[in-house]
Amino acid sequence: MANRNIRIVIEYDGSRYQGYQRLKNSSNTIQGKIEAVLCKMTGEKIELIASGRTDAGVHAKNQVCNFHTKCKKSVSNIMEYMNGYLPEDIVVKEIKEVNERFHSRYNVKDKTYLYRIWLGNYPPVFQRKYVYHVKDELNIDSMKDASKLFEGEHDFGGFCSRKVKKNTVRIINSITIKEVGNELQIYVKGNGFLYNMVRIMVGTLIDIGKDKLDKTAITEAINTKDRSKAGEKAPAHGLILYEVNY
Amino acid sequence: MANRNIRIVIEYDGSRYQGYQRLKNSSNTIQGKIEAVLCKMTGEKIELIASGRTDAGVHAKNQVCNFHTKCKKSVSNIMEYMNGYLPEDIVVKEIKEVNERFHSRYNVKDKTYLYRIWLGNYPPVFQRKYVYHVKDELNIDSMKDASKLFEGEHDFGGFCSRKVKKNTVRIINSITIKEVGNELQIYVKGNGFLYNMVRIMVGTLIDIGKDKLDKTAITEAINTKDRSKAGEKAPAHGLILYEVNY
Fold first, then answer.
1. Structural domains of chain A, ranges and CATH numbers in brackets
2. What is the tens place of the pLDDT at every residue in A97-145?
3. Could you give the residue numbers annotated as active site of A?
4. Distance from first CA to last CA of chain A, Å, rounded?
5. Which residues in chain A have Cβ-Cβ distances shorter than 8 Å to B118?
6. Which of A169, B127, B150, B158 could make a disulfide contact with B221, Cβ separation 3.0–4.6 Å?
7. CB within 8 Å: B91 and A122
8. What's the pLDDT tens digit per position in B207-235?
C-alpha cells in the first residue's frame, strides 16, 4: 500500500521546550513529542516535516507539518488519537490528507511571525509567557517609520545570530505594527527567515523606540551584514509563528 | 503615627494556589504570598483584607484588597516593591491611599465573575489554564433563556457546596452570556456569592445546554434549596473574579 501524506496544523506553547527540532540527546522538543505519538500510533518510524524550525521558547499558533504513513485510520481518528496522547501544550488543530507531492517546508510561499510587546507598567499575569514586557516608553511612530526599511529584498546577514556562508538574502513582504490596548503587536511576513532573524529585527526596532539606536542602524546592518550594527535580540517568549501560506 | 490604609487592585493566576485565603499549614495561598511580601517590606504583621475569597484554582483579574500600615514609602514605591518580590503569577495593578474607613470586604456593592467556556473541537493551547473545554454541542439559546431565572433576589442555598445555617439569600443583578469566537463567556454580577455558587450556576447552565437538565431545575433548586436538583459544579480553572464595585 502506498504511503499516505497527512498535513496537520499545530499550535504549541514553546515555553518548556528546546525548540521545534528533534535533538539526539533530548526528548524535549516539539518534533520529538509528536513523532513519539505517531510512532506509538502506527508502529512506524515517522519523520515529521515542518514549515520550519522554531527556537527554544518560541510558540506557534499555526505551524504546518506533514508526514507519511501507512496507517489506515481516518484523519479525524488520527487527530483525536494525537490530541489524546500529546501533552497539553501541543495540539493538532486541523488535519487533512494531501497529494503525495506536498512538502510543508519546500512548498512554503510565505510565513508570518507575530512578536508581542507589553507596554503596561505591570506585567500581565495571564499573558506573561507570551509577551515581552518593556517598561521603558517607546516611540511607536519612529518604530513604525523604521520598520519600513526592512521591507523588500535585502541581505539579512546582519540580522542573524550565526555566521552562515549560505545565501542570506530574504524578502520581507510587510511589517505591520499594531497597538492593541497595552500591547504592541509586530507582524513580520516574509519568504524565509534566518536564525534569530525576527528577534533581532524586533530588538532593533525596540532599541529605536527607546532612542538607543537611530533607524539608519537598519540600513547599515543590511549594507555591511554586520550583526553588531543591529540592536539587541528580543527574548524568545514574545515570538509566535503566526501563519504559513502555500 | 496613625496607620495608613492602602487599597490595591491585584491580578492573579490561581492555577498553582490553594485559593485566596491564608492557611495555617500552607504558604501556598494568594493572601499568604502577599502578606509575606508586606511583612518583609514593613517589618509589621499585616493582614490583607480582600473583597472576598476565591477558591483553589480560581483566577482574578481585578481583586480589590486593602491593608493598614505605618510604612512611609510612597504608594508607587510600595507597588514597585511588591511587584519586585511577588511571584510572576500575582501582580499589583493599581494602588492608592484611601480613607481609614474603607474596607474592601464590607464596602462591596457588587461583584462580577466571568466564567469562560471553550467550545472548539480542540483545546486552546494558550488559554488552556483559563477556559473550560466543553466538547459537547451546547444549545446556547436555551442557556441564555434559563440564565434569566437566576436574576433577582433568591435563596441560593441549593447552589452552595456547603451546608450553611446562615442566610443564603443573594441578589443576582444580571447574567450575560456572550459568544466570542469559539468561546462562551458567562458574566455573573451579584451582591454576594456563596461557596462554589457561580461554579454550580454555570455547571447547571452547561447541563441545560447539553439537554441533560431542563431549565425548571433552576427554579426547583431555588425553591427547595436542594443542591441535588442543580447541575454539576463547573471546574475552578474557568472562573475569574472579573470586577468589584464599591
1. 4-98 (3.30.70.580), 111-245 (3.30.70.660)
2. 999 999 999 999 999 999 999 998 889 999 999 999 999 999 999 999 9
3. 55
4. 28
5. none
6. B158
7. yes
8. 999 999 999 999 999 999 999 999 999 99
